[in-house]
Amino acid sequence: MAQGLRILRHVVEREKRGQAPPGVSQLAAELGIEQSRVSRLAQELCGLELLERFDRGPFRAGPRFFALAAALNTGWVRAAKPQLEALVAELGVRARLSIRDGYRVILLRASSNEAVPGSFVVPGMVTPVWCTGAGRALLWDLDRVQLGELLADVNYIGIGGPGAAHATDGIWDLMVRDRAAGFISADEEFEHGVVELAVPVRDAAGSIIGALSVLGTRAELGTDSASAARVLATAAARLRDAPEAQPR
Fold it and tell me: Which member of 81, 98, 139, 203 has the lowest number of beta carbons within 10 Å of its beta carbon?
């Protein structure tokens, strides 16, 4: 993923400087990545429409790159930065804003205390939707049939922490439990020793546009998850009311 993001960034930076779009061999030489690997990764990025290739030659930024860039410029995403830091100050844990792409969760923003040396937590990070707090918050409005259709091709083997469900029925049971509580509580579902509390972020029409979550150890979050979830819900409401949080 890191190499793919390097390729994408390099192509975009060349466009921004007005330089000619690069081909596979030029990308390989400029980035120091094996040519066959550049070719494979660039094709995967084209499949995701983050890059596009014209005339079987060089690459340029694709339509989904610009769609994501536009999303990052909306009021609710801009408003998330101070909200994430406010969550850190009030709860003393890490905070994240995420969106869903099929059965994947994509991280848009993370609080400043995630930026530690060696951290794998960066914008664009992809995690599973079924075994993360943010992911299950993004599934909040799905019924049982819709959940089954979304996860029909998922291979659960070897993914998730000790608290993760490894079948759609188990995920549905967790969703039913958490809806009754009013928030998602994912206890060691993705990372060992980490609890993630999450709520959906909705637009002005009530549609889910993202998920707001906090992560920490059980000791850091304490025993009163409901109180922390109320703080999360208040922050999510502020994002809903931010400029440009309009229905899609």
Answer: 81
**How far, in Å, CA of 138 to CA of 99, rounded?**
7
Pick the last residue of a domain from 29, 64, 99: 64
DSSP classification of residue 118 = T
pTM of the predicted structure, to 2 decimals: 0.72
Instruction: Answer whether residue 248 is part of any domain.
Output: no
Sheet strands (E) in the chain: 51-53, 59-61, 94-101, 104-110, 126-128, 184-187, 195-202, 208-216
Distance of alpha carbon 201 from alpha carbon 79, whole angstroms:
12
86 with 124, same domain: the answer is: yes
Q: Provide the β-strand partners of residue 101.
A: 104
Work out the number of other CB atoms within 10 angstroms of the CB of residue 113. 14
- pLDDT value, residue 248: 40
Per-block mean pLDDT, blocks of 10 residues, the chain (248 long): 87 80 92 92 89 83 74 76 94 94 87 77 85 97 96 89 94 98 97 96 92 95 93 93 57
User: Half-sphere exposure of 12 toward its Cβ, with a 13 Å CA cutoff?
Assistant: 16
